[in-house]
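Task 17 of the worksheet. Students: predict the tertiary structure of the chain below and write it out as structure tokens. Keep your answer in the requested format; marks are given for formatting as well as content.
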Amino acid sequence: MSLGSSGADVKENRNSHNRRFSKDGGGVGGAAGGAGPDGALLPNGKPTGGGVNSKKRPLEEGNNASSKYRPKKRKKLNEIKPGLQYKLLSQTGPVHAPVFVLSVEVNGQLFEGAGPTKKKAKLSAAERALRSFVQFPNASEAHLAMGRTLAVHTDFTSDHADFPDMLFNGFETAVIATPTDDPFQFQLPPAPGVNGSLGTEFLSPVANGQILVVTAAATPAFAPPSSAKNPVMILNELRPGLKYDFVSESGESHAKNFVMSVAVDAHSFQGSARNKKLAKARAAAAALAALFNVQLDQAPSRQPIPSEGLQLHLPQVLADAVSRLVVDKFSELTDSFTSPHARRKVLAGVVMTTGADVKEAQVICVATGTKCINGEYMSDRGLALNDCHAEIVARRSLVRFLYGQLEALISSSSPSQQALVFSRCDAAPGFRLKEQVQFHLYISTSPCGDARIFSPHETSVEDQGDRHPNRKARGQLRTKIESGEGTIPVRTSNTIQTWDGVLQGERLLTMSCSDKIARWNVVGFQGSLMSYFTEPLYFSSLILGSLYHADHLSRAMYQRITDIEDLPSPFALNRPLLSGISNAEARQPGKAPNFSINWTLGDQGLEVINATTGKDDLGRPSRLCKHALYGRWVNLTAKLSTALRIRTSTPATYHDSKQAASEYQAAKQALTKAFHKAGLGAWVKKPTEQDQFTLAT
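Model answer:
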């Protein structure tokens, strides 16, 4: 644009104070006269294009002399409520001094504005509309009042230290920093910038507890670009003077994890990352989300999927806390990862919460492993672990913990009843979890099978989810490969495995972890024997340390079986919270170890199992094997005979005991039918001879 003035320039630059310019190069009113292409000012306050503007005569427009910047209220209104139509109502006055009156309709209300130009009239109408709804305690409520939610197209969970555009998309230029009675203007504390100037974007509460949502003005000279705004800076503008504390440092040398915390309004928020700078940013982002309802967007595939049940915690806060607890416990058990048994590819664990305070969460069990038993080592006495994948071992450890809780109920030397997770059912025999007791399953990577096969890499910011959700391969049941890693789809025909066939060389097939967790979301993780004592028990959360993809994980866990029918009460399709963590775990390269470790609350140390044989290196059975858990079940049924939910004659074998849990078996059958009806394949069972044992054998 030419540096010379024009009639239009004079008309749009009516106040000598309005010589600052927006980032698009135009003056606040829309003209660019007197400024260089970028609309910048020199340090002496003169425009880069020379002193041409100084000769423009100021015209009266009722500006308060104390206001240095003219707010772009029409722009802000259009961002909050796009597509508004302004109508010209009248034009009066002489040709050299016309008066235009325009109106705009917002949520059924008409707002009029007058001015010497149509642009000024539109601005006035927009200002009146904005004044009608700025009295909200925070920005998101103003957006909701206008029928729109606040969103920021920025991902703060990435591990890049340079944060891209981290600003509120509805408030893209600096607010007026002038003490005035105008509700669109208020005093802001100094923000980081050159020579103490204000930054380019702000959102801050006023003295009476209300908040400004829409006031904006031209960018001050030398203000930092929008890319300089990270969550720490934004939170500092809302709550100046906050102090960030270093909480902990954990993780292996190649995958460190730092935790920082910040206290805001008597609430503490934590963030974890691979360095302290990112950890601070994530702590600030957690505070912004919890206290100001400012959601910092992630790619759709990275966003947590809330559960349908009771939600006591913020999803990301819970996910990060559960991850830290499991990793820290594993570090403690392996002498800060120096033990030979710290080698692993997958780590899993279960964390229990008993209320809204995550700080009171407790690690129940920890496990590692990625392999299954070789067919030649199968046991017909229940003495070998068939599946040593970490999440499967973790579930068995959790069941073992629950048996211990039931035994404590009937033990004269049991701890206080307050420490136990079970309480007796009121109107029926059996037990249930106490209120607010929840179990959260953590896996360091996505479970093998359907959840992992289509998400082999971390999602990018641009990832918009599954682009091919209807492909036939999606949702298929898959089996693990004996003596190897990975999974293959099940055959379309019903596959029956036989004991002699496997011993003669047929590969032993084991259902994938994705499929097993999907089954837990229907029949519960407690298993058929535990259902004699308790109602179905479901995980409240499934948290992944890496390779989290919302579409693929939700499909694998429950979406592919939403049409399940004929589930007996009290079984239901569980939809737990699904979430990744802020600091995704680094990939574990190299060959997977042949061992699996497990630890359960109350154990003195780790148990190490050879995943190939299903026993320890001395040939002793695991404390998690079928035979061991069955022995505890037999003892409990004898002592709690009056409290059993299932009344039956004493079963002869382990298999008979499981089959007698008729409601559980009906729920499992309904699941099998749901998979078959959806065309996803048939569930592959182990040879029946495996379960034909008694404690005497």
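Marker's comment: Confidence is low (pLDDT under 50) at residues 1-71, 135-228. The longest strand covers residues 99-106.
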